[in-house]
Amino acid sequence: MRATFSGIEIARRALQAQQASLDTVGQNIANANTPGYSRQVAVHRASQPYAMPQFTHNPVNGMMGTGVEIAKMSRMRDEFVEMRLRQELYNKNYWEMISDGLEQVEIIFNEPGDNGIHRALGHFWDAWQELSINPQSEAVRSVVLERGKVVASAISHVRYQLGKLRDNYNGLVSIKVDEINNYAERIAALNRDIVKVNAQGYQPNDLLDQRDQLLKELSEIVNIEVVVDQYGAASVSISGATLVQRTEVFKLAVRPVDPDSMPSPPYDQVEVVWEGSNVKAEIRGGELGGILQFRDTYIQEYIQDLNQWTADLMNTVNEIHRRGYDLEGETGQPFFILANGPDGVIQAGDDPSLHIEVAVRTPSAIAASSQVDGDGNVVVGNGEIALELAQLRHTKINNTENTIGSLFNAIISKIGVDAMESISMVENGEALINHLENMREAVSGVNLDEEMADMIRYQHAYSAAARMMTALDEILAIIVNRLGLFGR
Amino acid sequence: MRVTNNTLINNMLRHLNRGLSRLDRHQQQLASGKQILRPSDDPAGVISVMELRSSLAENDQLLKNVTGALSWLESVDTVLGSVTSVLHRAKELTVYAATGTLNSDDRNAILKEVEQLFANVLELSNASHGGRYLFAGQKSTTMPFQRASDDPDSPDYWVIKYHGGLANQETAALNVEINSNTVIDLNIIQASGTNAEDAEDQVFLPIFNVLSGIIQDIKNDDPGALNQRLGELEDALDGLLSVRAEVGAKLHRVALAEERLKDLHLNLNKMLSNIQDIDVAEAIVNLKNEENGYRVALAVGARIIQPTLVDFLN
Fold it and tell me: Which of A96, B14, B38, B192 is positioned for an S-S bond with B168, CB 3.0–4.6 A?
């Protein structure tokens, strides 16, 4: 025997459930383009039935249905895909920072080009060759001097720009550390809200989406691992050291590197430490990881290589030039020197801002001749020293199989290989991320056709439930209004 | 796999972007005419390009050297040729003077002409090329052959001293690089001695000695001695001939080097072009291909992202 009004209650529940689903459709459509939004589904469930009270127990009658209820608001999400996505993001961004830097290094060297060091050096050897034939000519001497200056300034320019690039990357470190701290604060704040809402028995779907989006953005900057505990709070750690623990944040900081452990060449380098403990943070990925790696490994190597090469060039040219005599009969003078720096040549560990310049001030001070006559006057038609310098173009130096030119080519080749590697790493990363984004979208994305179909489905169900309600209304109207007229 | 509208749009955007960046690359290659624009495009290729450019620049400089050496040697040959004609004329005059039937007027006329010939040879021996004396070795700005005295009445007026560079002091060689690591010595005067007082040159000094002897003999009216001078003249001519043969050999060597360098220039340019330059036909076909691909991607994208179920629900 059913209660008179139970049908109305079932219809009411149906109306509410369909309406909740329609609202969810609306929410999904509204957030179709919200970054990080996960599609939600209102899961319908038949509400608790009850056994019909009856005089005799007859199992055939079964239980009475009580309508429908919303079991939960499900948030469509694949945690594994999210985790993979975070990993690939810090991997890709790591290589992207390195690739960006290498692109700039390529632009700085500008090889193979018409204005690079390589071309300047070629012109320099040509000028010496010309001088070896016309050692007495003031005009040719001027050309040698000018070409020498072009070589010196081309080298100094590249060195200076490399130093600048390294300083720029160094400056980026503290900006990225600030960003990480900011993200950590926001994640901790969301943790607090999420735990609170969870405790009240609600599902904080949109807060979870926000936190996941923050985690994703954070993983672009630094390599993180995320663990979510039973209360719904996310713990974030960087290479095993905790950044966010529930609502607590352990901040990162930058500090100047200890002068004793300075790299060579030294500069105002900063390192990333944990605030408080001052322990050096281990950063392996993300933009910050790429910045540190590029600053400490890649560009450091190029600066040292270029220093070494510059030293070879200066030493080799100076050694020959010192043996020669200029037009005044003077000898023992270097051709290249350090500008306003110490005597001698560039060392592998020197600062890239150290400039080199041509020591010879006037054309007549170029030592092209290898001979002075008995009176100590220079033999002006002797161009042996100039010839020896011109032959440096194909002379193997330092007891190796390398010429000065091929040593420089080796630097360019190294940069090219490094850049190519980083570009392909970025491309691989992008392909993986695209794939993962598609997988994520397959689970969490909003398909408008699907939502439309759902909308129609719930709309019809709603109409039907409403119709049910009117039917019951009519039935009750008969009972209330039409029955019992007897005796009136 | 479940596909959403955003998947479609993202994929379309990504493909369009890729197509655009490939288009951009083809266009850059076509505009610059080069397929290697930076080291990362092809690290090994870049090194080849740089090595080849360096070889090419060196080759061009060597070609300049060779051209200069050729014109220098040709000047030397011309000068030596002129000296040879002078000596032939001197021989005729000596034969004439040695007949012994001349009156003093004729002798004087011959004397004057031989003196002129002497001055002529002196002038030729001090010839210069591009501001440098041809026969001074490395002392290229010092006049190599000078009279011991400027007084025409002094006997030293007819004595010539060599002031140029000396082989034994290593100031003679005029080395020009005509090939990587191959130098050629353009100087033909291999004089030796300690200074201008005793410097011995095997080319011009014997000629000056013969000519001044002839002048002396004509002045002394000594036909017998003049007959002997004919033999000395013959020797001087022979010496000159062998020097000219040496110059000829050097000219030949330099000319061969020039040909080799020109061939090398062509080869190097071809190799450089192979590595560095684009095949224009291929690049244009590629560009067109990419352009088509891009258009198709745009057209398809425009079709698939437009309709949703919304368009068909009333």
Answer: B192
Length of chain A: 488
**Per-residue pLDDT reduced to its tens digit, A358-388:** 888 899 899 988 888 777 788 888 888 999 9
- By Cβ distance, the residue of A107, A373, A412 closest to B46 is A412
> Are B40 and A423 in contact (CB < 8 Å)?
yes
Q: What is the overall mean pLDDT for chain A?
A: 89
* Interatomic CA distance for residues B70 and B88, integer angstroms: 27
A133, A406, A456: best mutation site toward chain B, by most B Cβ within 10 Å? A133
- From chain A, the residues in CB contact with B144 under 8 A are none
Identify the H or E element spanning B92: helix B43-97
Taking only the tens place, the pLDDT of each residue in B8-31 is 888 888 888 888 988 998 888 889
* Number of domains chain B is built from: 2
**pLDDT, mean of residues B196-219:** 86
- Asked if B208 and B145 sit in the same domain, the reply is yes
Count of pairs with CB atoms under 8 A, one residue in A, one in B: 179
Task: Considering only residues B279 and B76, tell me which one the structure prediction assigns the higher pLDDT.
Answer: B76
What does pTM read for this prediction?
Answer: 0.82
Closest residue in B to A421 (Cα) is: B40
Please check whether residue B42 lies inside any domain of the structure.
no
Judge contact between A429 and A95, C-beta under 8 A.
yes
Q: Are residues B286 and B250 in the same domain?
A: no
* Residue B247 shares a structural domain with residue B227: yes
Q: What's the one-letter identity of residue A76?
A: M
Pair type for strands B145-147 and B132-133:
unpaired
User: Containing domain of residue B286, as a range?
Assistant: 1-32+280-314
B211 touches chain A (CB under 8 A): no
Asked if the C-beta of B58 comes within 8 angstroms of chain A's C-beta atoms, the answer is: yes
**How many Å apart are CA B174 and CA B69, to the nearest integer?**
10
* B254/B109 same-domain check: yes
Tell me, yes or no, whether B167 and B218 share the same domain: yes
The answer as to whether B1 is a domain residue is yes
Distance from CA of A372 to the nearest CA of B (A): 9
In the predicted structure, residue A487 carries a pLDDT above the cut 70? no
Query: Does residue A448 sit at the B interface (CB-CB below 8 Å)?
Result: yes
Q: Is A409 on the interface with B (CB under 8 A)?
A: yes
Q: Any idea which residue has 């993180």 for tokens?
A: A224
The string over B195-226, giving b where at least 16 C-beta atoms fall within 10 Å of a residue's C-beta and e elsewhere, is ebeebebebbbbbbebbbbbbebbeeebbeeb
Is residue B314 included in any domain, yes or no? Answer: yes
Residues B300 and B224 in one domain: no
ipTM > 0.85 for the complex: no
Answer for the pair A126, A148: CB distance below 8 angstroms, yes or no.
no
B188 plus B295 within the same structural domain = no
CATH number at residue B76: 1.20.1330.10
